[in-house]
Amino acid sequence: MRPFGERWRAPYACDPQSSRGRLYPEPISPTRSDFQRDRDRIIHSTAFRRLKHKTQVFVYHEGDHYRTRLTHTIEVSQIARALARSLGLDEDLAEALALSHDLGHTPFGHTGEDVLDACMAEFGGFDHNAQALRIVTRLERRYAAYDGLNLAWETLEGLVKHNGPLLDATGRPTLRYAERGVPLAILEYNVIQDMDLATHAGGEAQAAAIADDIAYNSHDIDDGLRAGLFQIEELREVPFLDGLLREIDEQYPHLELSRRIHELTRRVITRFVEDVVRDAERRLEALDPKSADEIRQAPGPVIGFSKAMQDADAAIKRFLYAHMYRHPSVMGVRRQADDIVRDLFGRFKAAPDTMPEEWRAGLTRDDEARLARRVADYIAGMTDGYAILEHRRLFDVTPELR
Predict the structure, then answer these.
(1) Best CA proximity match to 81, nearest among 223, 271, 215
(2) Are 95 and 39 spatial neighbours (Cβ–Cβ below 8 Å)?
(3) Greatest CA span in the chain, whole angstroms?
(4) Rounded to an integer, what distance in angstroms lies between the CA atom of residue 238 and that of residue 166?
(5) Is the C-alpha dihedral spanning 203, 205, 210, 211 positive or negative?
(6) Per-residue confidence (pLDDT) for residue 67, from 0 to 100
(7) CB 340 within 8 A of CB 398
(8) Other Cβ atoms closer than 10 A to 184
(9) In the beta sheet, which residues pair with residue 68?
(10) How far lies 394's CA from each of 37, 63, 351, 377, 390, in Å?
(11) Is the pTM of this model over 0.90?
């Protein structure tokens, strides 16, 4: 395993100098690569700033020390950079993809997404990955020459395909989209700029995707413990975590709880990252790719967990699902958030004039699908706090989310 601090570029890395380009050609920057420019555009976007006030698991006002979408995104970015640097991938592209991976999330976490998906069932549904693509190609309006951020092809590809191909070799949706089909927003954009939906994304996108899993595992354990949703000794149900706790207790007996929690979560991150690097090196050695396209054409992902760590990851997720995501206090807040989003969608769709001028401009009630999508775009962009304020403006009673 190479030292994480050593920077190098492998032949299979995405190379900004041979990028497939942008939808709208732009002059080359004298100071930044295309992927560095993409990273900077994402950071300066309105959608990125809104992540500060969007829920991860807890609603935004429950405590200053719990994760939001923004702090989660920063943690994913740090892990993605570490993986990219160790594996010789383009660190700037991996960072850009990590920073953009949650741009399409709604207020109130997955609750908001589930509600919007149900409300949009007649109009193509709602998918946060597809929404992220809409944001960076249409909804961000910052530049004089075009809508969106005009990101490089490799960045858009990674945003769309970081979880794997969307189509199989015959053009049919892969398992994830087999029942409902590939989201319409992705298919529509694919007509404009071919995303090669039947191939894997480059290694940088795969690194960002696995970094997301690692960050979730570590910080949800941390947040759940600090919120009192479960106790640290309950984590011994997971053999992997039990082993780490035994190491900590042997090395630091009688350690205070806050330090014990931090020692556990940092070891979770370290073990997962080191496992990914080792297993990726094994897969890359077997594949021996000479270009980023050979990564894309590989029969499976080249960056992932070993079998043992896959089992540990699954066990942690089962524990968190039972003890945190479905905890009665969390479920109570989710039901209230469900009501807020559902109410807002119904009101804006029935009375589009209650939305700000920029969102209702050009709409007619005759085009129901366009109206519904505009309403979904408006709600999806809201922070938790703004959604609550809009509900208070439009309804007599608003849930307290407690």
Answers:
(1) 215
(2) yes
(3) 69
(4) 33
(5) positive
(6) 77
(7) yes
(8) 16
(9) 55
(10) 40, 27, 11, 18, 6
(11) yes
pLDDT digits over 87-138, tens only?
999 999 999 999 999 999 999 988 999 999 999 999 999 999 999 999 999 9
55 burial via Cβ count (<10 Å: 0-12, 13-18, 19+): buried
> Which portions of the chain are predicted below pLDDT 70?
1-7, 57-66
Task: Give residue 386's pLDDT.
Answer: 95
Phi, psi for 68 (deg, rounded to 5): -110, 180
* Three-class HEC string of the chain: CCCCCCCCCCCCCCCHHHCCCCCCCCCCCCCCCHHHHHHHHHHCCHHHHHHHHCECCCCCCCCCCCCEHHHHHHHHHHHHHHHHHHHCCCHHHHHHHHHHCCCCCCCCHHHHHHHHHHHCHHHCCCCHHHHHHHHHHHHCCCCCCCCCCCCCHHHHHHHHHCCCCCECCCCCECHHHCCCCCCHHHHHHHHHCCCCCCCCCCHHHHHHHHHHHHHHHHHHHHHHHHCCCCCHHHHHHCHHHHHHHHHHHHHCCCCCHHHHHHHHHHHHHHHHHHHHHHHHHHHHHHHCCCCHHHHHCCCCCCCCCCHHHHHHHHHHHHHHHHHHHCCHHHHHHHHHHHHHHHHHHHHHHHCHHHCCHHHHCCCCCCCHHHHHHHHHHHHHCCCHHHHHHHHHHHCCCCCCCC
Q: Which tokens is 179 given?
A: 């029942």
CA distance 71 to 229: 20
- What is the C-alpha to C-alpha distance for residues 196 and 161, in angstroms, rounded to an integer? 9
Supply φ then ψ for residue 270, to 5 degrees: -60, -45
Let me know: does 262 contact 173? Beta carbons within 8 Å.
no
Question: What amino acid occupies position 185?
Answer: A
Q: Report whether 148 contacts 134 (CB < 8 A).
A: no
Q: Per this entry, what is the length of the chain?
A: 402
Which conformational region is residue 289 in: left (phi greater than 0), alpha (psi within -120 to 50 degrees), or beta?
beta
Q: What's the one-letter identity of residue 281?
A: E
Domains, the chain, in order of start with CATH, read: 31-330 (1.10.3210.10), 331-394 (no CATH)
Residue type, 223: D
Q: How far, in Å, CA of 256 to CA of 265, rounded?
A: 15
